[in-house]
Specification:
about 70 residues, alpha+beta
């Protein structure tokens, strides 16, 4: 589910982060980076790719923090 354009524009104006590296997400939710990579391969998370790096959007991170991980 993609965030609305107005949400993205508001985030940019507030200078909020729109996406995070796997290492940052790992530290935030307390799971190993390898588990995040597995979740990406299974299709549980849809990363944004930029210059070869996988980034997790702020909306997906918010969703990850509220659900039970397996």
């Amino acid at each position: 589910m993609a965030p609305e354009e107005s949400h993205i524009v508001n985030s940019i104006h507030k200078k909020e982060r729109l996406a995070f590296r796997l290492k940052e997400v790992s530290a935030a939710i307390g799971v190993p980076v390898s588990t995040l990579r597995t979740m990406i391969r299974r299709g549980d998370i849809n990363p944004v790719t930029a210059f070869g790096a996988w980034l997790i959007t702020a909306a997906d991170l918010e969703q990850l923090m509220t659900r039970r991980l397996r």
